[in-house]
Amino acid sequence: MNLDQNKTPLLHKLNQFKASNPISFHVPGHKNGTVFPEFGRTSFDSILSIDYTELPGLDDLHAPTEAIAAAEELAADFFQADHTFFLVGGSTAGNLAMILAACTVGDKIIVQRNCHKSIMNGLELSGAKPVFIAPIYDETAGRYTNPSIVILEEALKKHPDAKAVVLTYPDYFGEIYDLERMIDVAHSHQIPVLVDEAHGVHFSLGDPFPQSALKLGADVVVQSAHKMAPAMTMASLLHFQSSLVSKDKIAHYLQIIQSSSPSYPLMASLDIARFYLATFSQEMKDATMQSVRTVRDIMNNSEHWDILPITENADPLKITFHVKHWRSAKEIATLFEKEHIYPELVTYNQILFIHGLSPFKELPRLKRAVNRINEQLKRDLGTTYNNQHPINANMCLDGPHCKKVLNHATIELTTQNIQSIQELELSYQTMNQLQYFQVPFVQAIGEIAAEAVIPYPPGIPLILKGERITAEHVEIIEQLQEKGVRIQQRDQGIRIFGNR
C-alpha cells in the first residue's frame, strides 16, 4: 500500500460540507433532514445530515474527480486493484456490469451453474449464450460447492471461443477452492475470469482468511462490502485488473445500471469499510479468531447438532451447524430466533451463523440461550419436522437444476443427477420473440421454462429461463410447497413458451 489508509476523504468532505451549515434549495426533499416526520428523527437524523446530492465539492460517482475519486483510489490501493468502482446497487450492479462489459449478443460465456441470480440476469441482458459447468457435490458439507477444474478444462476445450468465465468464490457457506488454478487455465486460453466474491471482502486481510480472488489473478472481482465489513446494506465494490476486459466498458455499464442519484451515506460507508479493513491490526485479527473459537465452543455444546470444523478451504467466520437426523434445522433455528438470535440461513439439516469481523460481545447471553435451547429440545419428545417431512435423498436444490428455499432464512438441500456441461434449450434472443403462458407445475413437464424459478436467499435458480422442465424439478417444487416454501415469481405454476 502506497497511500495513507487512515484517510476517509469522502466522509471528511461530507462532514466538512455539513459543518458549513448549508441551506438546501435542491433535492433531496428532506432538506438536510429539516423536512422529516418527528417520530423518525431519532433513527434518521445522523444519516439525513450527510445525505446530499452532487453539489460543488462532493463529486459525482459516474464521473469522479474529487472526493469520490480519492476514496476509490484508496480502495484500489488497499485491495491491490488497478481500479476500484464504488457500487450503490449491491454486488448485483457489479455482476451485471462485468458480464455486459465482457460479452455481447451471441457470445459464449462459461458460467458456474450454482451462481447468484444476478449473474443469470446479466446473461439475459447481454444476450450471451451461457455454457454452464456443474459444481461438485461435497458429501461432508452435504451440498454442491465448487466447480471442477476438469469440467472447466473440458468446457474450454469444447468452447474455445468463449469470451469469459464467471465463477463464484467463496460460496454462501464460505467454502473456497483452487481458484488460482482455474484462473491460470482460463488465462492460458486468453479468456478473462470474472468472480462474484460477494462474501469475501475480508479475504483481503490475509491469514487466517483465504486468499482473495484479486490476489489469485482474477480480472474483475465484485464484493459485497456490506456482507462481511462494516458498510451499509447494498454498499459494494468492483475491482478491475485486466488487459482482457475493457475498464471503460465497465464504467459505461455501471452508469447505465446504477442510479443517477447515488446515496452519499452508502458511498461514505464504503470509505469507512475500507479504512476499517486497512487498519485491521494483527491484534484485532487474533482477538476476532479467539472470539470465533469461543463462540464455536459455546454453540457446539449440544447433542442435537455438530459444528462443521474450520478447514483451510473455508472462511472461519462462517459457523455451520449440521443438525442430527432426529431433528430439523428449521426447528432449532426457530428456537434460536425465540432467543432473539438470528442465523443467516437455514437448510433442512444445516444452519449458517456468521461471526462478525470483531470480537463477539454477548458471550454470557449466547451461553444462556444455548442452554435454554438444549433444555427445550430435551423436553420436546414429539414428532420432529424431519419425521413429518421426509427428505428425498435422491433430489437436490443446490445444483444445476436447483438450490435452496424456505422463506428468508430456510433453504432446502437435496441431491440430483446433473449435467457436467449444460447449455440452454433456446437463446435469449429466440426466447424474447416467443409467446408464453402459465400452467400448473405438473403440466409443465417436458416444456421449456419462460421464466426462472428462484428460491431466495441465496437467489440461486431452481429452474432457468430457457431450461427444459423435468419431472424431478416438479417433484422438488411440490416438496417445497408442502413445507410452506415461497418460491420467487409465482407459487401456483410457471410460464412456459408456446401458444395455448
Automatic annotation (TrEMBL):
GO terms for molecular function: carboxy-lyase activity. Residues 417-481 form the Orn/Lys/Arg decarboxylase C-terminal domain. Keywords: Decarboxylase, Lyase, Pyridoxal phosphate. It comes from the Bacteria. Residues 8-307 form the Orn/Lys/Arg decarboxylases family 1 pyridoxal-P attachment site domain. PANTHER family: ARGININE DECARBOXYLASE, DECARBOXYLASE, PUTATIVE-RELATED. Belongs to the Orn/Lys/Arg decarboxylase class-I family. This is Lysine decarboxylase. It comes from Oceanobacillus zhaokaii.
